[in-house]
Amino acid sequence: MKRSLLFFTFYCLIPVFVFSQTAIEVIKKMDDKMQGNSNRSEMSMAIVRPKYTRTIEFKNWSLERNYFMTYVTAPASDKGQVFMKYNSEIWSYNPAINRMIKLPPSMMSQGWMGSDYSNDDLVKQSSIVKDYNHKIVGEETIEGRLCFKIEMIPLLESTIVWGKVYTWVDKELFVSLKSEYYDEENYLVRTELGKIIKNFDGRELPSVIEIIPAEEPENKTIITIKSMDFNVDIEESFFSQQNMKRIR
Amino acid sequence: MITSIAWKNVWRNKSRSLVVIIAVTLGTVAGVFVAGMLNGWVAQRINDVIFTELGHVKIQNPDYLVNEQASHYIANISELEQYLKHSKDVVAYAKRSKIMAMASTARGNSGIMLKGIDIENEKNVSGVYKQLLPGSGSYFEENSRLPLVLISSKTAEQLRLKNYRISNHTTDSLSMLNVPQETISKLTPIKDERFITRKKFESAIKGLWSDSEIRSYGPHLMNTAAYFQPNAKITFSFTKANGQIGYLTCRVSGVFKTSNNLFDQTSAFVNHTDLINAAGLQPDQFHEISVILNPSVKDIDPFIKSSSNQFKNLSFLSWKVLAPDAGLMADFIQVYYYLIMGIIFFALAFGIINTMLMAILERVKELGMLMAIGMKRKQVFSMIMLETIFLTLCGSMVGMVLGGLLIKITEHTGLNFSSVAEGFESVGWAATVYPAIDLSFFFGIIILVVIVAVLSSIIPARKALKLKPIEALRTE
């Protein structure tokens, strides 16, 4: 009797175990696909507000998740501004006033360039694999593509402010087509949609990412990827304060 | 002789005298009550400043005053503690580490001063633990694997942790207040729905209730529908001692609300050990020490002087310097009371002069007679002056008794100004006032009354003295 019970629990646990492991693998694959070891990209970001829309264009360079550099190319008023992530710090350079500043914590929670992305999001970006418990909770179709629905619960000690996150990962391409962010009382706070899949440097990725705050759906942020190259030749020394001033 | 004549003269034309007496009575009641209110208000503010916000004396590294950096801590703390422990003026002191942090939740951010405190010892110095909002949690007694934090109601609002929801509890409490069932049932469509801001909740209610319903039951609905997300998770980010960005994730233990919005907005309390671990500080690195002095120490300055002589590298600041508004009030409040009374009596003086002039003009013949049978000018003068003093004193005595009674009545119940409280509390003054007055103020009033009476009797008395006995006798 005891033995059969043991077997029973064992057999019950196997699928759970396998399932949860694949969840982590799916997330890892997705994360690697978006990131690569290093990458270079050109994007534009439209900040949609009820009364206006502002579009910012920029170039990105990144290396191993720890280093990140952004050069703003448009609009003309912001052109030349550079942001650099160096481990857990963000530096900003403004050529108009020739000033280099390190963003203080008080600015980390503000939206980056007025978007729905906070500076903190940029810094903490890499924790999607390490800071959550992942679980596949089902399979659903998003815009005609079959996806894993993965539930991600932040680890207690993590600095994630969400209560939980659902993300829908394409079963074939391993890219996220939709993510929902919930607060601790299980109310939806923000939705992220990945749309229009295109081929960038041999990788199929959503070229448009839409961020929609649940309570103010008229305040959107839409990021469009124009080009993206992976595993490009960038040294760690590229991410320096001197280079922030030189970069074009 | 003169005194009794003067006293009798007051009551010759009763109605005229009573008018002035009533005017003085009302003036005195108003003056005493306003002064009592101001006094109670100031006393409360000073009490809050010292026993909630600052303590009598705050000790800091002078560099910290210039730049609130984690590295500007109090250097020779053990020596200072020995000194504080042995000083007979010191009743209690609390050490705090402070770090400017950004608090964020899933929905909101707010800049805040994170204060690492010794939970038990803090109670001796600051009364924040007594000001927790009911139903919001406890003073660091929640069960949690994460560190606990105490935030203010204002911060909770900014972080969108103060939400609104119509639950069974809300409807029950509304029907307890005899709100018509029909009005309550109108709320059904939004039952159990959560609103993250007051504004959104208000606009939802506006769609359901009529204006008159909102006017009569709105405030109560707001109070009962509001709740704080229990044990919400907050992430604080800040600059660590080594200049890097540090994080501290906490759960809310409780929500407090003091009478000072500014203090509320900028203060959050965590356990000292949690803060120093996250911020990379050493256990003996504190940024401020709040000291509570013995009640017998009336003047703080000698303590500050002798302490700063001993510890030249530290800054000792009294609460009067740190909260100059309260300090100024404490020093000058007496002047304000007398200013108020002075203005009231100045206005009343004209009434008194008028009445006395009338009394003189009415009695020209009589005054002429008195002078003719040998009453000296000095005696006439003092008779009129005494008459004025009696008249005024009568009124102010009654006024003081009534005013004193009014203060006694409202002393414990308090006067609630919550309809305009937002304005008061935003500058640190309580919305509910408990009037109180010193006995010495009444003596002050008596002296003031006598002075006013003497001054306002001059014109009528001059008029009387100018009379020529012969001519005065002939008037009809």
Can you give a write-up of this model?
- The complex is a heterodimer of chains A (248) and B (476).
- The longest helix of chain A has 34 residues, at 2-35.
- Chain A has 248 residues and is of the alpha+beta class.
- A 13-stranded antiparallel sheet of chain A has the order 6-5-4-3-2-1-13-12-11-10-9-8-7.
- The relative contact order of chain A is 0.17.
- Chain A has helices at 2-35, 105-108, 119-124, 241-246, and strands at residues 38-48, 53-63, 67-74, 82-86, 89-94, 99-102, 132-142, 145-154, 164-170, 176-182, 188-200, 203-213, 220-230.
- Chain A starts with a helix and ends with a helix.
- Chain A has four helices and 13 strands.
- Chain B is α+β, with helices and mostly antiparallel strands.
- Chain B folds into three domains: 2-48 and 326-474, no CATH class; 57-160 and 230-296, no CATH class; 162-228, no CATH class.
- Chain B contains 20 helices and 14 strands.
- Chain B has a six-stranded mixed β-barrel with strand order 2-3-10-4-9-8. Chain B has a three-stranded antiparallel sheet with strand order 6-5-7.
- In chain B, a hairpin with a 5-residue loop joins strand 8 and strand 9.
- Chain B is elongated and about 100 Å long.
- The two termini of chain B are 27 Å apart.
- The model of chain B has no long low-confidence stretch (mean pLDDT 85).
- The chains are: A alpha+beta (248), B alpha+beta (476).
